[in-house]
Design goal:
- This protein has about 700 residues and is of the alpha/beta class.
- It folds into three domains: about 260 residues, Rossmann fold (3-Layer(aba) Sandwich), CATH 3.40.50; about 190 residues, Dimethylsulfoxide Reductase, domain 2 (3-Layer(aba) Sandwich), CATH 3.40.228; about 120 residues, Barwin-like endoglucanases (Beta Barrel).
- Helix content is about 25%, strand content about 20%.
- The chain contains 21 helices and 27 strands.
- It is globular.
- The structure holds ligand MGD (2 copies), iron/sulfur cluster (SF4) and molybdenum atom.
- The site of one ligand MGD has 29 residues, from strand 16.
Length: about 700
Amino acid sequence: METKAYSQCEMCSARCPIEVTLDDGVVSTIFGNPAVGSIGTRLCAKGAAAKWFLNDTEKPTRPQIRVGSRGEGQWRDASWNEAYDYVADRLKAIAEKWGAQSILVGYRGSLNNEFVKAFARGLGTPNDFTHNSVCPLSLHTACQATLGVGRKALGFDIENSEYVVLYGRNIYESLTVAEVNQLMAAMDNGVKIVTIDPRASKTAVRSYYWVKIRPGGDWAFNLALMNEIIKSNLFDEHFVQTWVKDFDALRNYVEPYTPEWAEKETDVEAATIRRLVREFGEAKPKVIFHIGWFAARYLSEFHMRRSILFLNALMGSYEVEGGLFFKKGLTDVGRKGLKELDSTLDAPKGDRFDGIGPGKKFPIVDKGQGIAHMLVEAAETEQPYPVKALIIYRFDPLYSTPDTNALIQALNKFELVVAIDVNWSNTAWYADVVLPESHFLERGDPIQERKGLKPILALRRTVLPARFDTQPAWRIFKELANRLGFGDKFFYKDIDEYNEWKLSEAGIELSQFGKTGVVNLAKEKIWYDRDTGLKIKTPSKKIEVISAKMEGAGLPSLPPYEPLQVPEGKLRLIIGRNALYTQGSLSNNKYIKEVLPNHPIWINKKAAESLGINDGDLVLVSSDTGSGTTVAYTTDAIHPEAVYLPHAFGKRAKAQRYAYSVGLSDAELQNFATDYVGGSAAMQECFVTVEKISK
Ligand SMILES: Nc1nc2c(c(=O)[nH]1)N[C@H]1C(S)=C(S)[C@@H](COP(=O)(O)OP(=O)(O)OC[C@H]3O[C@@H](n4cnc5c(=O)[nH]c(N)nc54)[C@H](O)[C@@H]3O)O[C@H]1N2
Ligand SMILES: Nc1nc2c(c(=O)[nH]1)N[C@H]1C(S)=C(S)[C@@H](COP(=O)(O)OP(=O)(O)OC[C@H]3O[C@@H](n4cnc5c(=O)[nH]c(N)nc54)[C@H](O)[C@@H]3O)O[C@H]1N2
Ligand code: SF4
Ligand SMILES: [Mo]
């Protein structure tokens, strides 16, 4: 008999709403949830490949305890009770010997954030951290310093826009289904996409204009755009007067950065910059300078991202149709917000392992995000104190933070590493204990508030019983808390009871989610009054050119531009995502591997020629930190200073037949570099040589 169930995909963190068709209880297809048309009724290739992952036996299928040396891959099966007791006993001993602060709790943001954060609070450690320092952190910090809210507060009305300017943001490849749908609809409406990218991405080739920029040239490019917009009086004067603090400082600051100056730094012709500025000026305010997503490329990432926020201000494109908007949620429809478990526990005080805090290395970075890539330094220096245990939930730092070998050295200093994952991540492979979470179709999670112009609440519910001996996050953290003496804080008996508690102040019942798992909160789009109602939360309540937050921490708001530098004889390694892979986490998937087993390194034809490299040659790629081999793809479609690899290959867990050791891992080539203002890693401050090995 055919039945349908509704839930959310988790093959990446976009969490598209899905419709699962079951034949006598066996999954036959997974598709988009038609009840959520605005978010997207299609699925991407990775979502469809979830079916393979469900039945994959090359993942941990019951708790694992290491028996060989770290990373050797010798494990024994354990019962859940044994594994919980084992982890809890060791955590107690470590807390007693080294203090609770020596326990680090790392995670990638998910629906289960509140359980992970509550767990860290229960342990008494101030050291919880997300994956964000290797993704959007500098952008987030830039938004906080300029608008007083984080990056997730902003949305984009792409469908109604006239110009969408993308700084790399590769919407058609590094995707969420919703944004792909929006951009396709916008193209039907005649939008002009301007993609700035050193290589021809799948979005660049579908654009009205591809700006083949020198890698890292974005900040200089933006300074010149602002120079030209202001000089040509093409900015929205009313908006700037109403909402921008210290506009004159911005005008003076960009004065020397002319299009001719930028041409030398970015390889973009001054005439192109002038033409684009005229076109943007005429289309405003329906112009979106997309703030981006992945923002862990350069030392100057923070200032580049701030310049995007300024450009949107000059166009007056905040809170307007076809521009950017502040996302709306429960409180905008007159309801109270969802409750979260972590807010019922006090946040432990004390210095953090990662150097965030007033007067510290990262004075303006949000503690709630943490800085994952500071783990190595913390372990090596034992400053401000030794770190001894690492609990990792749904995050793979050993694949996703730069310099894999340095991190392995650091992990060897830990007395306990526990990975809670659905798969053999690199980190799980190097851990002491692996607690396997159930596949996303086999579990319920906390309700999600999806903010937007028309906000909704969405429910992930259990579609299938767990096939293997795995457990959901709500249970894993509760069981550990029970054994560590703060089980009373994890008061719920199951996820339904927890979700009822979560909803209890919002005045919504679990039963309202009905069959499709969605509650629509607004019939019409909600816009704030753009003259009086922008939700800017800086001290001045305006978009701050001179940022009170930065100045208060002794950081200059408008520092002079610093020219790009590439060491003689080296190429800059640039990176991105691939449409078929979610970082490295899904690479052991038969369906995916059938379509794209491996990926070459892109290298400019002329650059390759000068190195004696032909298309299809096997090459050795080396940096100061590591080296590896792959095949060269020579093309004009990349800037000559760059080589390009997606972050998806070179996995280390031998248990995974399809992924193990296939291709080159960019993380093994990258060294430690960081944007000390915004907090992100600076992964593209990485320079390599490429040599031919053979045909
Ligand atoms: N299929 C798929 N979709 C995903 C993901 C995935 O893993 N797979 N991951 C999701 C996540 S977590 C993220 S963060 C987003 C990331 O999405 P994006 O922010 O779009 O980031 P990337 O894919 O890293 O890179 C996009 C483009 O930036 C270009 N680029 C490199 N250097 C520069 C530069 O100096 N200047 C400019 N202007 N461009 C440059 C690259 O060539 C690449 O084409 O994708 C999300 N969507
Ligand atoms: N060198 C280099 N490093 C990078 C990047 C790069 O381009 N180059 N990209 C960066 C970016 S943009 C990002 S977002 C990060 C991504 O890196 P991570 O944050 O590590 O994200 P993922 O690879 O999506 O997943 C991490 C782990 O979560 C597991 N997982 C998936 N679903 C579930 C689940 O439902 N429950 C549990 N418990 N676990 C689950 C996966 O198996 C995987 O091991 O990497 C960053 N690091
Ligand atoms: S974008 Fe694809 S993989 Fe990610 S949640 Fe949506 S369908 Fe799943
Ligand atoms: Mo990311």
